[in-house]
Amino acid sequence: MREFLLGLRLLTGSGRGNRTRFLLMVVGSAIGVCCLAVVLSIPGLIAAQDARKTSREPDCSNGLGTCHARHGLGLALTRVDPYGDEALTRIFVAQDDKAIAPPPGLRALPAPGQVYVSPRLHEALRADPGLAKMLPGREAGIISASGLAHPDELYAYVGVRMDEVERGGRLSSFGRERTAFPTVDSSTLDILRFTLAGVVLLPLAVYLSVCARLSAAARARRLAALRLLGLSRMGLQRVNAAETVVAALLGAVLGLGTYWVVNQIASRIGLPGFDWYPSDASLPVSALLVCLIGCPALAWFVSRFGAKRAANDPLGVRRFAEPKPPSLWGLVLLVPGLGIIAGYCAVGIAGHPPTDTKLSSILVPLAVVLVGAGLVLTLPALSRLLARKVAARTGSLSLGLAMRRNEVEPSGPLRVATGLVVLIFAASLTQGVLVELDQVSKNTAPVQAYRVDLRDLTEGERRAIGEVPGTRGHVLETASWSDDDGAEFELGVEGVIASCAQLRAMAAALEGCEEGQPALLSVPHGVNEAPAPPGTPFQFRFVDDQGHHRVVSVRLPERVVHYQDDAVFPALSGGTLIIPPSLVPTGFRPDEGELLLVSDSEPHVVRSVLQNIAAVDPMLEVETEGVDITALRQLAVIKTLLAVGMVLGLVIGVAAYLVAAADRAVERRAQVTALSLLGARRRTLRAVQVAQVVVPLGVGLGLAVVAGKAAESSYLVTGGGAVFWDGDGVPLLLAAAVGAVVVAALGALPLVGRRIDPELIRRD
Q1: Please, are residues 274 and 41 in contact by the beta-carbon 8 Å criterion?
Q2: CA-to-CA distance for 244 and 213, rounded, in angstroms?
């Protein structure tokens, strides 16, 4: 305890410079803790949104799994449709004479003809009157915050009669064990944690270490003096820890306060694709303990490492003895990490991606951590080896002086460079995650297809939907039917009921079609084999609104129609049998099948088509082919959070560079002054300072780009996607690396000034 108090007395009574350094350590730690708090708040934020989703979902509704309600008092039907890039969720609710407890956010369930909407949907209805077609009834109220996952959610409860919800599930209450539409599913959340750990936490550890080692050389000389005066090794470590631990603790408190302010402001502004309530991002007790205990613990560990040389060799520190060469223990981490990454890259090249996802989910993050830590620990040894080789062969005075200095003290310039090296390494990993997420199924074609189950439509509704404005055309899809006793029709064939005019309206190119004649469909780059020899009969079953059935037999033709549309995957598949509408009995439609419509894929066109379909029947389930709106919502959230992580990583990397560069400028003043008194020109000294930083930084960034791209490829190999090797991001990474070198070079120039202060070397 006495040593700790001694450290505090030395801090308060050691002059303005030390107090300024202490303040910088506090501010630096606060920035780091604030960034750490942002990362630690994300899982709780997502869990809070999912908890509200879980508490409001009907216990049983169509499309959400098996119904477990035994005594349902009503019916519920859930519909989720795309509204641009957002999801529009509608809950159709009907109840009998007995009231059902309302979900969170409502005081009572809507009566038939009433609609309760979220605030954002209330605004959207004013801006887009056509949206009211999807919400039949009058607006009766607004859903409060307790019933919404986030402030900008498009959500509505629509009251209907019991006889109108034919396809709904029994409803007894609201609330489920888990939500059917999580903000981010568990596997994607694991990806997010893994990426943020690489993008933010690795640079953060480097940054906090840099802050804890401000003025390391001056402090080492002061500690060596205390050691020579008789202070024990443990006492020396306690004295050194007093300053760093107190600074880290004060910085942690200040950082948590800063995070609270940032959360209050950012939650009210929102981020593109992601918004939240301020209470969602409240830090749990475990996160607070990590910030308040973990950061001072890291500072204590760094201070012990910094005081080790002063405790073991105080005379060497006071007399500026040559330090021991850096160890190669970093290779113990780097080599296994690169081995795991290289192994996954090798199986990717061989075309045999691993199938054991559980093992890969452990090994790949482990390899990333090993490589990241190995890069940081190995750079001093590699820098010293490179400096020795270059100094022995160069004929340049500036480069020779710089390399000799790096050979003697390789960790000095690397304190400046390490944060940028880790940032580039993490940026490559983030790019790999974005590549994998971009493989989520989404429609990028100029056309959009819609499918509606024919069993949900009457003949009048089918005709009305087929004529909705905004569509290019429509056809009916069905499949051949076989009875259980007839072996003649065991083979099946897909059929499409359409005229040549209907197909021509949907297709970009159509060749060989003749009205009234059956034909087989052939599509480019598809499987176009006929399911049976020509002349083979296939039966198709039709039904009318009264439930009467008819069977029509169609023989497989030899005629082939070449069809091509603008979709990424053709809306109609090869080998499909084209059935002319003239063969279908009047008033009948396929017993089973789908109504397929095609329109342009512009967002306003898709919205208009969905609204016009809802005008016919707002409860219809419309499949927007190629668009998984829940997956796209998750993708938008993940991209936003990764962008936040990259911004935090950039802030941390730049802050680490600025802190380390400023600290190094102060430590190098005596050496620069000595060289100036010996006659070295300012131009030479500036070249020396630039070379000292740029050469090891260039080597480190080169290793970071190579290791990062290898880690990215190994991640893509294990991700299950179709893309293993992404070369599009290499120019961006190289440009970022070159930019980091330029910034580091410019930052090294002010180390040499015009004024020479002999006092800087007289004191030593």
Answers
A1: no
A2: 8
